[in-house]
Amino acid sequence: MKVLLLGIGNILFADEGVGVHFANYLAENYRFAHPQHSLDILDGGTLAQGLTPIIAKYDHLIVCDTVNAPGVMPGEVYFFDFDAAPAEIDWQGSAHEVEMLQTLTMMEMLGDRPKTFVLGVTPTVLEPMHLGLTQDLLAAIPVMEKALLAHLSDLGFNSKKVADNTIESLYQDAIYREASNPCLQ
């Protein structure tokens, strides 16, 4: 089985970039191993539909992103099967969130969507030209990390923490990662 952990978001809009920052955080701090399966971690930026040919190559997809849930406090973490989304998730967040929903729906109609899970967190603020996350989302990172590591363990992956970088220490490099990411060219 091929598993893709896909970080989605716009790093220039504060909490909007949490999926990308979280994917980079995991790639820097962990190594994952499984006797038969593979795990790739990808910064998908805001591409959504442009990622279709990449996503279609996988059997299992975990999308890390913001999720919109009216009336829910910022920093609330959700981890769910895309086919059984909680009722409070309304998919009316940012433009890329709506486009990612459309991409996954289109892939389902074509029979190309892998089994999909969403690891999402409700944003505090989507603020233009602010590189970094708010305190509410920073506090949610350990919860997201624990949920993802448990899910990967359930899939049979072993994880080894190889570094102890903070997510904040990776903000500046996110711009350079995106500039050199062939998927985002």
Number of strands: 7
- Give the rounded overall mean pLDDT: 87
Radius of gyration: 15 Å
Which blocks of ≥5 consecutive residues have pLDDT under 50? none
What does the largest sheet look like? Answer: 5 strands, mixed
Q: How far apart are the first and last residues' alpha carbons, in Å?
A: 27 Å
Helix content: 25-40%
The sequence of SSEs as H and E is EHEEHEEHEHEH
Our count of helices gives 5
Give the spatial strand order of the biggest sheet. Answer: 3-1-4-6-5
Assign the structural class, choosing from mainly alpha, mainly beta, alpha/beta, alpha+beta, or little secondary structure: alpha/beta
Overall outline: globular
* Fraction in beta strands: 15-25%
Description:
The chain has 185 residues and is α/β, with parallel strands linked by helices. Helix content is 34%, strand content 23%. The chain is built from 5 helices and 7 strands, in the order βαββαββαβαβα. The chain has helices spanning 18-29, 52-55, 95-110, 135-154, 171-180; strands at residues 2-8, 30-33, 38-45, 60-66, 77-81, 115-121, 158-161. Strands 3-1-4-6-5 form a 5-stranded mixed sheet, covered by helices on one side. It has a two-stranded antiparallel ribbon with strand order 2-7. The longest helix is centred in the last third of the chain and has 20 residues, at 135-154. The chain starts with a strand and ends in a 5-residue tail after the last helix. 39% of the residues are buried. The model has no long low-confidence stretch (mean pLDDT 87).
